[in-house]
Amino acid sequence: MKGDVELIKNGKRLDGRLPGDLRDIKIKTNVVKNAQGSAYIEWGNNKIIAAIHGPNEALPRHTANPNKAVVKCRYMMAPFSSSEEHGRSGMNRRAVEISKVTGEVFENVILLDQFPGTEISIYVEVIQSDGGTRAAGITCAAVALAASGIPIKDLPFSVSAGKVGETVILDLNKIEDNYSDADMPVAVLPRTKEVVLLQMDGSLTKKQYDEAMELILEAGEKISKIQRDALISQYS
Ligand code: CDP
Fold this sequence. Notes:
This protein is an alpha+beta fold. The protein has one domain (17-233): Ribosomal Protein S5, domain 2. The chain contains four helices and twelve strands. It has helices at residues 93-107, 133-148, 174-179, 206-233, and strands at 8-9, 12-13, 25-29, 37-43, 46-57, 70-77, 118-128, 157-164, 167-170, 182-189, 194-198, 201-202. A five-stranded mixed sheet has the order 3-4-5-7-6. Strands 8, 9, 10, 11 and 12 form a five-stranded antiparallel sheet that branches. Strand 8 and strand 9 (167-170) form a beta hairpin. Helix 1 packs across helix 2 and helix 2 (133-148) runs parallel beside helix 4 (206-233). It is globular. The relative contact order is 0.19.
């Protein structure tokens, strides 16, 4: 364990979860009026809105690709979203990184060649953060994208796994993220199990990696169901 915070006591995590437990997740679609599609997610103490614009003519023009749509993604944390001093100066290096990897997830998902010359914008706005916001943001943006009607080949989900000491845990919250020995956010296309994002902070043995992946795929079934139910309930 990094530092001196005891993250697991008597087999339970500080928030009462067992190592393989997911936080509670709620998703609502079409929460903002002026976007093509949108969604709101509460994932534990994370609160995030994702909104989609497009396909629109790609601007400035030199960013356009005559063969397919380009994906532009912006992940931002609101200045009031965390107890830490950040975000007050706008985009930082971390936000640039998360915007890039989130955009790449959706480049693997949207049927881009149906919209040559256009741009599809994905906005992920973190209102309240408690660790795992990139995973929650991707999970939410996937629902917003589906709600927008833009054709996609699958509905990706994302969640992280990591380890405390030698114990593999699912879905790290902020304190776990800060003091754990590894954190591995992953995004998956559920139909094919294709991995479209995998980042790693720290290290896992091969056996721990396999265990983490198993937890992620198992959790993915629950997350996918919550995503689909949110989409279905927009019609009822
Ligand atoms: O949110 P995620 O786990 O994807 O990203 P991270 O960079 O591993 O950050 C973990 C958590 O630390 C975030 O969810 C925030 O709650 C917090 N954080 C923050 O408040 N300010 C930052 N500049 C970076 C992280």
